[in-house]
Amino acid sequence: MISDNDSNSLIPNFGIQLHDVIDKYGDEYALFGCITNRLRGLHQLYNKQFSNNHDMQYHFDIALKLNKEHYAEVEETHGVAGLFLCFSKKTWEKVGGFVENNIACDTLFNDAIKRNKIGKIGIIKGLYLYHCYRMWENTYEEAINSIIHLQK
């Protein structure tokens, strides 16, 4: 499992939930992603909407709701973002790992899984991670077009 340093699981059963998903779908799916609040890919956003709400209680409530309603459900999709990627060592080896020093390494990883027909790609519908994704921007358009250079 790989996740961005600006994303958080908000519920305590996160590890057990992942175990249950992998146990149920691990032979069928090569890569799993999650539902989140801020991301370029609208298909992974809660209610398909980009959120500008940074109240953690609000996001905890969403995480708990999805966990209760969709715990270990997986929905097949065309690709998942690098904020959270869950895959087996076997998948990693078949793909050959990530393309180094490339901001699109997650997209390239998804593409390699599809190209090599390793397995399905899915979103864990009951798993919600809060993602800070360019939180200095107030709109989806600003966030997806934002490039920030942090200096020492």
Q: Keywords, please?
A:
152 residues; alpha+beta; four-stranded mixed β-sheet; two-stranded antiparallel sheet; 6 strands; globular
Secondary structure layout:
Blueprint: E1 2-3, E2 7-9, H1 14-25, E3 29-36, H2 56-70, E4 74-76, E5 84-85, H3 89-95, H4 105-115, E6 120-131, H5 140-145
Parallel strand pairs: 3-6
Antiparallel strand pairs: 1-5, 2-6, 4-6
Outline the structure in words.
The protein has 152 residues and is of the alpha+beta class. It has one domain (2-145). Helix content is 34%, strand content 20%. The protein has helices spanning 14-25, 56-70, 89-95, 105-115, 140-145; strands at 2-3, 7-9, 29-36, 74-76, 84-85, 120-131. Strands 2, 3, 4 and 6 form a 4-stranded mixed β-sheet that branches. The protein is globular, with a radius of gyration of 15 Å.
Largest sheet: 4 strands, mixed
Number of DSSP helical runs: 5
Which term fits the overall shape? globular
Distance between the termini: 30 Å
Query: How would you classify the quaternary structure?
Result: single chain
Strand content: 15-25%
**What is the average of the pLDDT values?**
93
Roughly how many Å is the radius of gyration? 15 Å
Low-confidence stretches: none
Got a strand count? 6
Relative helix content: 25-40%
Number of domains: 1
SSE run: EEHEHEEHHEH
Structural class: alpha+beta
What's the gist of this structure?
The chain is an alpha+beta fold and 152 residues long.
